[in-house]
Amino acid sequence: MAAITIRSMVVNAFLIYQLAVHFASASPLYAAKGGVHRRLFPAIETPSAVILTPIAGSPTLLPIPTQTPTSTPSETTSATPSATPSLAFQNFITRRGNKLYDGDQQFRFVSANTPGLLISEDTPGIRWVVPPPYEQDDLMRSVAGIGGLVARTYTLGVPYHIVGPGVYNETGFVGMDNAIAAAGRNGVRLIVPLINENLSAGEENTFLIGAYRDLAAFRGLEADVFYTNDTLRSDFKDTITYVLNRVNTVTGIRYGDDPTILAWQTGNELGSWEKPPAPADWLLDISTHIKSLSQSLVMDGTIGGSWRWQGIDVPTIDIYDSHLYGTNDTKSLREDAAFASLHGKVHVIGEYGLTDPVVYDTYMDENINNPNITGSLIWSLRGHANGGGLNVHSEGKNGTSNEYEIVSYHVPGLPPNIPDKIGPEETTVIADLRRHALAIQNLPSTTPYPAPIAPVLLTVTNGQLTWRGSAWAASYTVFRGNSTSFNGTETPLAMGVLDNVSIGDVVTRGYLWADASFVAGMEVHYAVQAVGVGGDLSPLSNVI
Prior knowledge:
- The chain is an alpha/beta fold.
- It folds into two domains: about 95-440, Glycosidases (TIM Barrel), CATH 3.20.20; about 455-530, Immunoglobulin-like (Sandwich), CATH 2.60.40.
- The chain contains ten helices and 21 strands.
- It has helices at about 1-20, 135-145, 170-185, 210-220, 230-245, 280-295, 330-340, 360-370, 425-440, 505-510, and strands at about 30-35, 35-40, 95, 100, 105, 110-115, 150, 160-165, 165-170, 190-195, 260-265, 295-300, 320-325, 345-350, 375-380, 455-460, 465-470, 475-480, 490-495, 515, 525-530.
- Helix 8 links the parallel strand 14 (about 345-350) and strand 15 (about 375-380).
- Helix 5 runs parallel beside helix 6 (about 280-295).
- The chain is globular, with a radius of gyration of 23 Å.
């Protein structure tokens, strides 16, 4: 009976896979039985000591889409466990009443949501994709340079992480390994929501991954029993167990033992503003389970209306948040923060944005000046694309926005390119974000900007160049010569070159920047150098 159950789960996963788009390289999957994870494909090396055997009769599963980065001599794209695990942070963030602490120092932050860190939806032709390590590191460099001490990810995805009850996709989790490692390397702590809000009947699941109705569907159940059905609750707790017991294939550290994770969030916008909220008994059960497996804090994921305080007195929940997407939310923010403080809990602005950017300063100022607000996270920050240019994302227009689209932001705040979804407010928003992020840490606004790392020249064809950019590069200098050796003393071909171009545009036209003086038949070579905001120069790129 157990084998039949597992096989039926796999078949269900297979049907879900058939609905996914543009799949790429094969990815190993696991099925859990009795606490032991068994690979559905022939065994290869894994990060933990488990028994690996194929499940007889299981169908061939379609793979999860994943980008394959262009390799360079100095870059590795596969995870290699550390021989000796080393922690990026010495302390877990702890809570004392309504305050957070890093050791004996109060911990407060102004930073950003980074929804593309675990799963990216910005790659041309692919709805969702596991981002390559370069993009994850670039994004965490972006956050760190702002002065952001924290980043909030998007949720675990179905089927990108969770394929069925007890069935998990290794490609997605190796991507998560790389994301956590990149955050730690760059001194950024993470808030990770575990599951996503549900959709109403009839709504298309086009923008949500990991909606809890997908977890219910694995068992042939409706979403409205997610919080009350014992089997679904057990499934969710089993997934949490798998996640927190996972040993990171890059750092060698078990997720539950890694202080890089500031908090595990019970979900993202559970209840939304109109659907049933997570009840107190569910929040108590789930948060207690998380606490039994991890030293990190627990953040409530409920949102919307007075019902969002269902678990305010649950002792195993540490942090509550507000999501602000209007122009007059300061009063409700203060009320929320005061209510959380009254109950001895931490309050943060988990998301804000999608409105007139002049409002953002109000929220960041409130974060700094109101002792009941520990942190704030703008929506949202994106980084460079693996294939050149930028990952961009549009949230469209709404009733509280300006005339232009609300789009994602990029460091260091690039000049607008409206057709490519790089908005006119980006320069101001990033500057204000960094100013507040430094101020909340009592750091001067004159704190130097990070120096960019070397870009990677990817392709050169008839004077048309594409390179992989560098976080905090304000511009690039392009060199051209007859030799394959450059030392940076050559006369530049072009200075002040920008890469404020979307990856979609790069793919469409086939290059990032063109040498206007190139003549057919020239035998020349190129190199690129990043120029930082403060004038710092990166090493030269490779030469092509």
